[in-house]
Amino acid sequence: MADASENLVLEHLRQLRNEVQTFRTEMHERLDSLTDRVGRLEVLVAGLHEDIAGLSVRIDTLDRRVTRIERHLDLAEESGRQ
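User: That's the sequence. What structure does it adopt?
Assistant: Structure tokens below.
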């Protein structure tokens, strides 16, 4: 009877070990996938930041040009843009 009980306990322990190993493997795969996805998001955010910076430069350039045109046409207000 003791042998049967020991074998049963050992079998349960083996099943638990296999389940834990399977779980660990799945979690590692998911973590790798999430790491890849976060990396891609970081690249996208960096690209957006670069696009926004470029737009800001273009807006500043357009602002200077409009100001120059307003001055040339005598349309600029004294308290307006400089």
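The two ends are 97 Å apart (CA to CA).
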